[in-house]
Amino acid sequence: FKLPSDSFKYLGWCDIEEHDVRGNQLRCPRVREGPSEEELFFRREEHTLKKRKQVTDTENWEKRLQENWENCAELNLSFQDLGDLYQVENFKRILRRLIRVEKLWLVDNSLTDLSAIRLPRCRELNVNKNHFRSFKQLPKIPQIQHLSLAENNIVTLSGISDFRHTPLESLILKRNPCEFQERYRQLVFSSLPNLKMLDGIPKLPEDCSPPDIRFFYKMCTIL
Fold first, then answer.
1. Against a cut of 0.85, is the pTM above it?
2. What is the pLDDT of residue 138?
3. Measured between alpha carbons, how far is 136 from 134 in angstroms, rounded to an integer?
4. Which pLDDT belongs to residue 5?
5. Which InterPro entries match (predicted)?
6. Number of H helices, E strands in the chain
7. Among 20, 99, 103, 113, which is least packed by CB within 10 angstroms?
């Protein structure tokens, strides 16, 4: 037995007619696209195609205007279930339009590489529970102040110095392999002199790297 709402189960909010809700009005929108027509036939859910129609260029442009991602200042795109490549590409299409976003959550999306994305105004970024392996795979975030990378797969601190010239104040790297590196906190703070807090703990005196012992070999003592 099919419910009346069944034909809407795979539609995005932009595809539903007779409403004027815009993307910047939604805090946690669902942006994952529905299955392809071939997959729907395979699932025997072809009845959901009744509400779909051929989209003209004009309608496609109107949809992009309604999404209005360019004016989002705060957005939560976590838990999107991006299981297929076309889902990831559509997700990145949206990220490229977030030119004014200041706070962004992308938790648990199985993301691996956003290095081609630039978020010029982003001050707070949460990408916990993804599959990043390097700081080089993060988006360009020149104004970042608070960055959370907990539960990824970052093995080394290589590339962390790229954030040296940003206003980064707080960094979370809990439950990443790099957390077990010798002198982990000292290495992070030496790479990021402006950093005030690491893994929720403020910078402590012992987090400051000791003087390089090689410096003393070049000195002589005058008695």
1. no
2. 97
3. 5
4. 66
5. LRR_dom_sf
6. 5, 7
7. 20
Q: 210-220 pLDDT, tens per residue?
A: 545 444 344 45
Q: Pairing mode, if any, of strands 124-126 and 74-76?
A: unpaired
E strands, 11-168, in order: 74-76, 103-105, 124-126, 146-148
Type of residue found at 136: K
Do the beta carbons of residue 138 and residue 162 sit within 8 Å?
A: no
pLDDT score, position 54 = 57
Q: Which of 95, 75, 97 is nearest to 24 (CA)?
A: 75
The enclosing H or E element of 118 equals none
List domains and CATH numbers for the chain.
24-203 (3.80.10.10)
Amino acid (one-letter) located at 103 = K
Q: Are 109 and 91 in contact (CB under 8 A)?
A: yes
Per the listing, tokens 């402590």 go with: 204
Assigned token pair, 58 = 């004009």
Return the pLDDT at 215.
Answer: 40
Structure tokens at 206: 């012992």
Cβ(153)–Cβ(178) under 8 Å? no
Q: Is 171 helix (H, G, I), strand (E, B) or coil?
A: strand
Hey, what are 179's tokens?
């957390």
Picking from 143, 151, 162, 154, the residue whose alpha carbon sits closest to that of residue 126 is: 151
CA neighbours closer than 13 Å in the CB half-sphere of residue 37: 6
d(CA 53, CA 18): 16
